[in-house]
Amino acid sequence: MRLHAFLPSPRVLGIMALKTHLGLDFEVQTLDLSQGGQRTRGYLAKNPNGKMPTLEDVAFTLWESNAILVYLAARSPQSGLWPSDLARQADVLRWLFWQSAHWDAESWGMVVFEKMSKAVLSLGPPDAAFIARGEQNFARFAAVLDRSLNGRTWLTGETLTVADFSVGALLPSAARIGLSIDPYPDIGLWYARLAALPSWQFALAQQESALAAWQAEHQAGTMI
Ligand SMILES: N[C@@H](CCC(=O)N[C@@H](CS)C(=O)NCC(=O)O)C(=O)O
């Protein structure tokens, strides 16, 4: 398998942590978004959205980071990261869809696009109105996450799943762009558990060093 990824991206952090957690072996093909690697004809044939990450398996190509998390975890059923029980699978899916629609696109994604992605992709200055909307949404959905985590070890109960990898992956970057989880104590406790996993620490260190290297190369002052 081969993962096409811009390693500084938080949407890749969860996948890289899962890779280490499950002891998976796949090659990482680096894609520098600022150089337009996502818009080449060859890459668009793999991912017509012109976005990363994209996973290539023997006869199958998959895009969307949450779909990739499920695909990888379901190959290791003994890990429990993708549960076998139907209701628990639906619960994990609920959080993956929530992450994609609300936590990412409507909240963190809106702020990071304005504060960082526009600079990486040369799309002009940030729009303060979009940042304000993203910040409002972050507060709304962080409160939902905080209440949902109350009394739980992991997002869907007592067992770690890919939902934790997906939702948690945006938090280090959220802190860097001013989206604080300080007002949400249960998010803080849950994220501390996630951040204590050796696989998470390894992937986060890898992401941070990829980000530092990219910033040094491009003399970029902004942070993902
Ligand atoms: N919902 C998608 C979002 C993917 C996405 O937006 N990727 C961004 C960077 S983190 C990208 O590749 N942007 C490049 C572009 O739009 O040109 C996922 O989770 O995989």
What small molecules does the structure contain?
A: glutathione
Tertiary shape: globular
Structural class: alpha+beta
**Share of residues in helices:** 55-70%
Major sheet description: 4 strands, mixed
The CATH topology of the largest domain corresponds to Glutathione S-transferase Yfyf (Class Pi), Chain A, domain 2
Termini, distance in Å? 26 Å
The whole-number mean of residue pLDDT values reads 95
Based on CA atoms alone, the radius of gyration comes out at 17 Å
Q: What is the β-strand count?
A: 4
The amount of beta strand, in percent, is: 5-15%
Query: What is the CATH domain class of the largest domain?
Result: Mainly Alpha
Low-confidence stretches: none
Count the helices. How many?
9
What is the CATH architecture term of the largest domain?
A: Up-down Bundle
Order of helices and strands: EHEHEEHHHHHHH
Total of domains: 2
Give, in spatial order, the strands making up the sheet with the most strands.
Answer: 2-1-3-4
Task: Annotate the secondary structure layout.
Elements: E1 2-5, H1 10-22, E2 27-30, H2 41-46, E3 54-57, E4 60-63, H3 65-74, H4 86-120, H5 128-149, H6 162-168, H7 171-176, H8 185-195, H9 198-218
Helix pairs in contact: 1-3, 1-6, 1-9, 4-5, 4-6, 5-8
